[in-house]
Specification:
Layout (H helix, E strand, L loop, with lengths): L17 E2 L2 E4 L2 E4 L4 E9 L6 E8 L3 H15 L11 H16 L2 H12 L3 H29 L3 E3 L2 E9 L2 E5 L7 H12 L3 E5 L12 H7 L5 E3 L4 H10 L5 E5 L2 H10 L7 E5 L4 E5 L5 H13 L9 E7 H16 L21 H14 L3 E2 L16 E3 L6 H4 L7 E6 L3 H9 L2 E2 L1 E5 L3 H11 L5 E4 L15 E2 L2 E2 L4 H7 L1 E9 L2 H13 L12
Parallel strand pairs: 1-5, 8-9, 8-11, 9-10, 11-12, 13-14, 13-19, 14-17, 16-17, 19-20
Antiparallel strand pairs: 2-3, 4-5, 6-7, 7-23, 12-22, 15-16, 18-21
Helix pairs in contact: 1-7, 2-4, 2-6, 3-4, 4-5, 9-10
The structure holds glyceraldehyde-3-phosphate.
Pfam family, one: Aldedh
Protein name: NADP-dependent glyceraldehyde-3-phosphate dehydrogenase
Family: Belongs to the aldehyde dehydrogenase family.
Length: about 525
């Protein structure tokens, strides 16, 4: 077992554990007197390995789950609540206040992203900054949406004022790999569109939400956002069973999504906004630029140790260039630097899930037993909180690494001579998020792009898969997603078209004019938000 010498700069030390017993319901920061869940980092603070104790958060119970849902329902008040009927510019003002307060927490949040989930410093900073930018972009986009709606239409003698309205109460559950960004990419558009929400942070990356509790409390009217801590089974299930959750917004895996959906008694009524598993392939064609393909496949498969839904989770390389690619690729994997998140140049970092190295080991054992090999020298070396990424070749369809979303450092490789091999595999797969296609010959590329665009929702030409820039649509086919996210699409996903219609006659038009003059409806308004 390899171990590392700990170098912990003063700047990144956590002075003391964060014991946060607070949670937010109905605008009140309540203190929990019951059981607390201890939070550990898989990063050691001492030379002899031991997880670092980071603090604790409440392990709330069913009662608090029900209270939080009640608070969200009351704030929505069947659409009559202050928040869903508030003027757009006032909701925007609340969001602007929130983002300012959030920005002040950058240093601590970035530090906690590193400690809690092991993300390296540049990526932790990027996660924070990208989220702040996402909020600003959402505000701007909502202004545009509102400006476009500030008008009347007339068709076949019917005058209409069409806007987008909220859907109701949103249960928001985010993932551990982007505990801030992905969660807020759900929560922020949900709130700004006038919905109310209950939000439960993921199992890792939970302490980093605690410094933001006050910001939420101070920025939004009571009950609009409720934040609870604890286990999904204990908290989310009872909420779903009431049938009063209007929208399930979840980024995670389909197993937990399906389990929750099944508990909702009126599934036809439940709206779903889901980001689920993927097994994005890279396809490397004979005339690909090899150095570029190697660089992008490293970034795609191993950024944040492959713990991204968009990660490249299988590579298909054409036989004609297989030997050359594998040689360069395995050397590049073994040349990567492993270290703690704040270590200069650390690309590979500790895995937050204590059982992940063991899981990857099981995938390796299974592949080896079925004729696969680890073809990089360091592949499979175990450390206390890590396993060196194995490059596995040849991978066959009966192997677990072919079938399962590894969500960690392990790279399965298949070779092909007929392009239908990867295409058929993709068509048979349960997933359909993105693909990376490497090549230069347009005669080969063009028909492939046409086919691939119908198998997934983003074809990345000569680059790794990724979600960003966040203005682009992020979605997937089959088991990979439901609904579309992006700055703009998320506003649509969390709202519904709703409008006021009236027959075009003198009496109606004068009522309309009176309403506009009195300026006492939030919905009927031609105000142009600056
Ligand atoms: O885990 C899935 C994330 O949406 C990936 O985002 O491609 O920007 O890393 P990213």
């Amino acid at each position: 077992m390899m171990s590392t010498k700990i170098q912990l700069p003063q700047k990144f030390k956590l002075n003391q554990p964060i014991e946060s017993n607070r949670y937010l319901i109905n605008g009140e920061l309540l203190s929990w007197k019951g059981k607390m869940a201890k939070v550990y980092s898989s990063i050691s603070s001492t030379d002899s390995y031991q997880p670092t104790y980071l603090g604790s958060v409440p392990e709330l119970e069913e009662q608090q789950a029900n209270d939080s849902l009640e608070a969200a329902l009351e704030a929505y008040d069947q659409g009559k609540g202050k928040w869903p009927t508030m003027r757009v510019k006032e909701r925007i003002a609340c969001m602007q206040k929130f983002v300012k307060l959030m920005e002040a927490k950058r240093e601590l949040t970035v530090k906690l992203i590193m400690w809690e989930i092991g993300k390296n410093l540049p990526d932790a900073e990027k996660e924070f900054d990208r989220t702040v930018q996402y909020i600003y972009d959402t505000i701007e986009d909502y202004k545009n949406l509102d400006r476009d709606a500030a008008k009347f239409e007339k068709n076949e003698g019917v005058v209409a004022h069409i806007r987008r309205g909220p859907l109701g109460v949103v249960l928001c559950l985010g993932p551990y790999n982007y505990p801030l960004n992905e969660t807020f990419a759900l929560l922020i558009p949900a709130l700004i569109m006038g919905n109310t929400a209950v939000f439960k942070p993921a199992k890792f990356g939970v302490l980093l939400i605690t410094p933001l509790l006050e910001a939420f409390q101070e920025s939004f009217p009571k009950g609009v956002v409720n934040i609870v801590f604890g286990r999904g089974r204990v908290l989310a299930s009872p909420m779903m069973k009431t049938g009063k959750v209007d929208v399930l917004a979840l980024i995670g895996n389909s197993k937990s999504a399906n389990a929750l959906i099944d508990q909702h008694p009126k599934s036809n009524r439940l709206r779903l906004i889901l980001g689920l598993e993927a097994k994005n392939p890279a396809i490397i064609l004979p005339h690909a630029d090899l150095d570029l393909a190697v660089k992008e496949c490293i970034a795609g498969s191993l950024s944040f140790n492959g713990q991204r839904c968009t990660a490249l989770k299988i590579i298909y390389v054409h036989e004609a260039i297989r030997t050359a690619f594998l040689e360069k690729f395995t050397a590049a994997v073994d040349a990567l630097k492993f270290g703690n998140p704040w270590d200069e140049g650390a690309f590979l970092t500790p895995l937050p899930e204590p059982n992940k190295p063991q899981y990857i080991q099981e995938l390796i054992d299974d592949a080896l037993a079925k004729g696969g090999k680890i073809i990089n020298k360091k592949g499979g070396r175990l450390m206390d909180n890590y396993i060196w990424p194995p490059v596995l070749y040849p991978v066959t369809k009966d192997m677990r690494i072919y079938e399962e979303e590894q969500f960690g450092p392990a790279i399965p490789i298949r070779s092909f001579t007929d392009i239908n091999t990867p295409l058929n595999d993709m068509a048979d797969s349960n997933y359909g998020q993105q693909v990376s296609l490497f090549g230069k010959d347009i005669k080969e590329l063009s028909p492939l792009i046409d086919a691939l665009a119908n198998l997934v929702c983003r074809v990345n030409l000569n680059s790794s898969c990724q979600r960003g820039p966040d203005v682009y649509p992020f979605t997937g086919r089959k088991d990979s997603a439901k609904a579309t996210l992006s700055v703009h699409d998320a506003l649509r996903s969390f709202s519904i078209r709703t409008f006021v219609a009236l027959k075009d006659n003198e009496e109606n038009l004068s009522i309309l004019e009176e309403i506009l003059k009195a300026n006492n409806s939030s919905f009927i308004s031609t105000d142009y938000i600056l």
